[in-house]
Amino acid sequence: MSASETNPSEVAFGHMPILEPLLPPTAADTQHPQPPRHRVPSSNTDLAGAAVASAHGNITRLVKSRVKHWTATFTIVDWISVFIPAAGWLSKYKWDKWLTADLIAGITVGIMAVPEAISYANLAGLPSEFGMTATLVPCIIYALFGSSRQLAVGPVAMMCLLLSSGMIDNIDGQYDNEDPNRPANPEAQHAYNTAAIQISLIAGLMFLAAGALHLGFLTQFLSHSVISGFATGASRVPDSSVKYFLGVEISRHWSVVGTTEAILRHEPEWEWQEAAMGLTFLAIVVTMKHFGRQKKKWAWMRSAGPLLVTVLGIASVWAFGLDKKGIKTVGKVEAGLPRIYVQRWFPLHDPQPKVLTAGIITLVALMESIAVAKTLADRNNYSISPNRELVGLGMANAAGAVFGACPVSGSFSRSAVSNDSGARTGLTAVFTGALVAFVMAFIMPVFALLPMNVLAAIITASLFSNLEISESTYLFKINKLDWVVWMTSFLGTVFLGVEIGLSLAIGLALLLVIYESAFPGVPILGRLPESTIYRNKDQYPNAEVDDRVTVMRIDAPIYFANVEYILDFVRSGHQKEQDPDDESCAILATEGLRFLVIDMSAVTYIDTAGLRGLEALLGILQANDIQLLLANPSHVVMTMMDSSGLTDLIGREHLFVEVHDAVQHAHEDIERISMELRNRPQAPRAGSISLHGRPSIEYLNKMI
Length: 704
Hints:
Elements: E1 12-13, E2 16-17, H1 27-31, H2 45-57, H3 59-73, H4 76-83, H5 86-91, H6 95-123, H7 128-145, E3 152-154, H8 157-167, H9 186-212, H10 224-234, H11 239-246, H12 256-265, H13 272-294, H14 300-320, H15 351-379, H16 386-403, E4 409-411, H17 412-420, H18 427-443, H19 452-464, H20 469-478, H21 480-496, H22 498-518, E5 524-527, E6 534-536, E7 549-553, H23 563-572, E8 595-599, H24 608-623, E9 627-631, H25 635-644, H26 646-650, E10 655-656, H27 659-679, H28 697-703
Helix pairs in contact: 6-7, 6-14, 6-17, 6-18, 6-19, 7-16, 7-18, 8-15, 9-15, 9-16, 10-20, 10-21, 10-22, 11-19, 13-14, 13-19, 15-17, 20-21, 21-22, 23-24
Domain STAS: 539-666
Main location: membrane
Membrane topology: Multi-pass membrane protein
């Protein structure tokens, strides 16, 4: 068949057949045939159902074929790696090339992790062995189940802060022990330790449940503004560090006001020796971290800072007997490998505050860990799985709860050191754990001489890295709404506490998302000169518009929250930022308007309220002798429209693939009716009818 003999209904656009109007041709159609239009095909619901029914009959053969393919393609190692990802990279491990790099990186991270573990345990109000256990067990377990090759999992300052703030007033008995290693109230410390283990277990179960349900996508709902403001607010120097800088005994407070009042109240007791030592050690750590970030060849300084001040502090106490001159030290620390603490999991007294604390820890730990893991994966040209990260962190926290550890997360500083040291696989974590185990078994008593002001310096330097004050300035300049979210998160965390501050910020961020989707952009489009491209006429002033054919685009899904706004815009033409008393932009008020073309390319979804809204819009337009044309609706939208019968109401002949096709159709219809008027001078019967019927005198006069 030649091109001239081709049936228009069989002409294809891409692989989609064009569905021409199933209407009898009029005289005008015969005299002036229209060229084929690129119209939207049916969603083919019936055909899809038939295909499913046909496939159902062959389901057994299909399953057998798949199983045969899987057994022939995947090895035993591949199947094991589905549940334990470490099996995959261990089977392909290049021992001659990677072992040395992983060993060096593991030892480097271990040297950095030991003093940090003791510091963070103190920050959480827990004995030193809790921090060491959190560094030993979870990092190895995560290496088996996680997807990141460089992420260093263990105790971090933020998690310990959240744990401390969540438990101060929510344990059996009043906790007021200044030194967790030498508690004045052993019973209260025992209850506190038990609560920490239970929170680690709950956090681990939350991670595992989220991983099983594939909820890794939920991280997308926590904006950067929320996390940045929260991290900055929570990173204020805590009272547990301040008291060791000043050498005073103060009770734990979470609020800034309470901590400040307690410090000023004990002003006569300030010890300048403690302050001098602590600030000196702080300056050393901050300086070395700063230079370690400047050049790659100085990267070793980032991990050496905590180790250096630890050695200097222990040496100073040992050489000059500073512990006998008022300088507070860690005190007695028991040597030995981790013990089993499963017996402390139950009973779970007063579970509500523990579940709340575990939930916040899970949320923040997930955000921080995935952010760090993604960054390192991008640098090393591989990808991570958010759901696999959930499982890895869940197993790490659950294992930590078995052996008595505080909640853990991915550490940015130790992960960066691991990457800079050349870590290639999770075997790095095994070497880190081995070093920590050696220290716990043989060297731990040496840390009894470690000054508490050294721990305060390490904690404070770590928290400084979480401060993102410059982010506030950037957001204020770029997006005021994001800045409001940041300030809400920051101020709420500082003055109202972690739970309230974070909840307020998340709630506000979600409200802003709803607000933006409830008032979407509905720009009027114009045709760029000498092209078939249609763009926002406010953005492109030279875009050509035709008062007879208005083209508008809906820049959002159409659902219950925004459908009324869209209808109001068509009726009044008012965007949310425009003056509602200005009627000059009303679409329906446009003189001579005969066609409304809606570009549906940005409409990814439509619900039942949106369908009813389009049906109402169709009625409004028909009452004003205006024809509705839709351009480029997605398959999801077409399926909903077909199922609801809206396609038939609009008419499939009024659905087009491109905006330009719809506009051409409108112009040709206007021209056809004008020609029909010239060829039929007699007056037609009264009444205003459809564009595709016999038009009334009033209608044709307005058309011309």
